[in-house]
Amino acid sequence: MVNQTDAQGNKLNYEQIGSWSDGTPRYSATQSLSAPGQQLLASSQATQQNLSNLAQEQSGRLSGLLNKPLDWSAQQTYLNDLTAQNLNPQWDRLAQQNETDLVNRGMRPGSTAYNDARDQFAQSRSSAYNNANLNNFGSALQSQMAIRSQPLNEILALSGQNQISQPQFANTAQTGVAGTDVAGITNAGYQQEMAGYNAGQQTLGGLFSAGASLIPLLSDRRAKKDIVRIGQTDSGVPIYKFAYKHGGPTQIGYIAQDLLESHPEAVTMGPDGFYRVQYDKVG
Question: Left (φ > 0), alpha (ψ -120 to 50) or beta: where does 62 sit?
Fold first, then answer.
């Protein structure tokens, strides 16, 4: 338990406060900032507290803001004024042109044709104004939502400043204990397995030699025990490690039942009712 002081003057001090049940000393650890660091921390905490108090005061406005529906009256007046400002000059000219056109076509004021034409013109003008208002609705909605959201965002931003610093604790010193050499144990086991495999390969090479491969060998599963598959040939025929039930050392080779379909020409039936395999016909 070594007391520490860093380059900024921050300290970590240990103090023995007793012993554990087995007699091991028991310590407490205390961290402290340097004088300038402590001043900065106190100033930061005071600022956060002020912002938190301000957010708390302003949060009382939330119920009033949220309970108040959006006021569209001013916005609707603005839209109507904007539409009129943009469309009135254009439609006033069109109205004069329409009036002149009706007179030139022989339609007199008060006649049915004249009144129908004027009604149709009025409908077209009303549709144009309505379409203009609809096109401006999106920007008007964004404007209203921005006005409504601004005080809410300010209050939420103030609330987010009130962040409490999490305690920082020193790591407890640990007694060093040598670990188990798992890699060495694993490697030793691997080397043993490789030695056994190489020995099996030598046996298999002798078994597959020219002289042995011409003699049908007892390969019936029923005559074997302790059967373990250890690999396969390039053509996919399984290779096994086994022992004969009648005794003898461990052998490596095929099992006749595996070859009945893939290599029937290599399998024969002996006089004892057990299958035999001629290895040179398997490959």
Answer: alpha
